[in-house]
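Renewal narrative, Specific Aim 1. Our central claim is that a sequence can be written position by position from structural information alone. The example that follows is taken directly from our test logs and has not been curated for this report. It begins with the structure tokens describing the chain, in the order in which they were read.
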């Protein structure tokens, strides 16, 4: 059986402890490969390699780093079909989605930051005629990047690309649920000529392997994407060590639909925002606030759109929703559907585990589920479910919509649907959310700041924000 090994100092290694974790394909329920179970000893090796590689990598001209990163982007593009299949088999999402979104975005992440570093500027301040200040931005050293399972290669590269581009060396850990594409990336990095030790990829459980990365004194910064409770644990270790931290955490995102919209068109997009990737995107809109005057019409349109999300074998072209990432997560999502009933909700469509015949008979599937009749403050509408479950919530006034939208502890993303430009901007300005989309969803420009408020995170990724995070500013003051 294939073994997913650690990539340290430019070579593949078995874990020091010799232990392996089963890697299950969620669409079939079968063990597909074995994952290195790394612990503190493996992290030591990776950090040593990264420290040794830092001097040469950080002093290489930006153009040199850029060329190597563009070569990696090119390799990902050349192997897009294989990577997409690996992503789907690991994560459960439809193959067409892996190709269209995950792998193509991994190419974009690498090439965006590879070229971004060729166009940076720095600040200079003339204090008076004889005094000049200028600010250097220098790489931090060894940094840690820890990513989740929902968009595996997409989010892994979203972190390592700015870290490497800025001249840092990296110890990175993908999720133990979806390690395959990061493992395949390591081979592509070797082929692309990335010097040994610049990027080290470790596999294993979060507290054992991720925790050892976070707690290692030589790791200067942690870029983490994952759950809010994990973010708290990481912060409790890294903050007393005064490490820089970028924490991209959970969400419970509102979608606000005002009564001036085209109902059919909007319902189509709102359903896409709720159920894409089995609802396993931190940006999915799971609280759908609908103005009461169009509520009935919108509910009918939403039921129809939700039912268009055909659940099935992720390898089939007409499948719109694949498998839930693993059995434990499937059971968690199903428990929230049960909770919705206990909290007085009505299931409008879906609500059950879906059994798929043939190759996927042992897989973990859930019907796309739409609920109504729940208050904005109940647990189903306050806690992150991270699956194909969305609730309709009626509202009367703009004020009420904004209050419900802002009523959770999260503040990651929000979407506003309206044809009234003042309402659109007025609402967007008042939402407690790091990202607001108006009449669209998941539209991304990699230059824009990305991240959440409140319990959804600390710091921003993307464009110059990411390069700033991965560098230390140093002001130099010169008396002429
Ligand atoms: P998770 O927090 O369980 O795990 C994320 C990563 O952290 C994994 O690699 C895991 O192994 C590691 N980890 C776990 N415990 C750790 C510890 N104690 N120390 C160090 N590392 C540890 O999250 P998940 O279940 O993989 O992902 C789902 C969550 O991620 C959801 O809450 C979702 O909203 C969030 N997410 C947020 C964003 C964003 O940009 N804000 C994007 C995607 C996903």
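The sequence written for that structure reads:
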């Amino acid at each position: 059986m294939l073994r997913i090994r650690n990539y340290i100092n430019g070579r593949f290694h078995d874990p020091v402890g010799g232990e392996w974790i089963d890697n299950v394909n969620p669409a079939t329920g079968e063990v597909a490969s074995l994952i290195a179970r790394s612990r503190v000893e493996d992290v030591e090796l990776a950090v040593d390699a990264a420290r040794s590689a830092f001097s040469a990598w950080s002093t290489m001209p930006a153009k040199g780093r850029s060329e190597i990163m563009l070569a990696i982007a090119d390799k990902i593009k050349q192997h897009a079909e294989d990577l997409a299949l690996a992503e789907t088999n690991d994560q459960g999402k439809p193959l067409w989605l892996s190709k269209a979104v995950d792998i193509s975005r991994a190419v974009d992440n690498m090439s965006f930051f590879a070229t971004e570093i060729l166009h940076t500027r720095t600040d200079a301040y003339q204090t008076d005629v004889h005094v000049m200040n200028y600010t250097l931005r220098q790489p931090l050293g060894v940094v840690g990047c820890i990513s989740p399972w929902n968009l595996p290669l997409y989010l892994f590269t979203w972190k390592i690309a700015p870290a490497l581009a800025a001249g840092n060396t990296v110890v990175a850990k993908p999720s133990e649920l979806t390690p395959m594409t990061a493992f395949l990336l390591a081979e592509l990095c070797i082929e692309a000529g990335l010097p040994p030790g610049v990027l080290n990829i470790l596999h294993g459980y979060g507290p054992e392997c991720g925790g050892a990365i976070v707690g290692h004194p030589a790791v200067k910064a942690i870029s983490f994407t994952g759950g809010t409770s994990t973010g708290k644990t990481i912060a409790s270790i890294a903050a007393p060590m005064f490490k820089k931290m970028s924490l991209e955490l959970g969400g419970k995102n509102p979608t606000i639909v005002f009564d001036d919209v085209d109902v059919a068109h909007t319902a189509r997009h709102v359903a896409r925002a709720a159920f894409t990737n089995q609802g396993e995107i931190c940006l999915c809109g799971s609280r759908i606030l609908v103005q009461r005057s169009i509520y009935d019409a919108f509910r009918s349109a939403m039921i129809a759109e939700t039912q268009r999300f055909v659940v099935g074998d992720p390898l089939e072209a007409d499948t719109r929703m694949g498998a839930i990432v693993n059995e434990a997560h499937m059971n968690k999502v199903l428990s929230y559907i049960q909770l919705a009933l206990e909290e007085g909700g009505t299931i409008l469509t879906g609500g059950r585990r879906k059994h798929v015949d043939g190759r996927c008979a042992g897989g973990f599937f859930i019907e796309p589920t739409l609920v109504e009749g729940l208050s904005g403050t109940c647990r189903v509408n306050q806690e992150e479910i991270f699956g194909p479950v969305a609730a309709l919530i009626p509202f009367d006034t703009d004020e009420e919509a904004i209050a419900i939208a802002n009523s959770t502890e999260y503040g990651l993303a929000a979407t506003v649907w309206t044809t009234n430009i003042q309402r659109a901007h007025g609402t967007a300005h008042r939402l407690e959310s790091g990202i607001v989309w108006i009449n669209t969803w998941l539209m991304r420009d990699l230059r824009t700041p990305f991240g959440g408020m409140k319990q959804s995170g600390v710091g921003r990724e993307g464009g110059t924000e990411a390069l700033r995070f991965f560098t230390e500013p140093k002001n130099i003051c010169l008396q002429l």
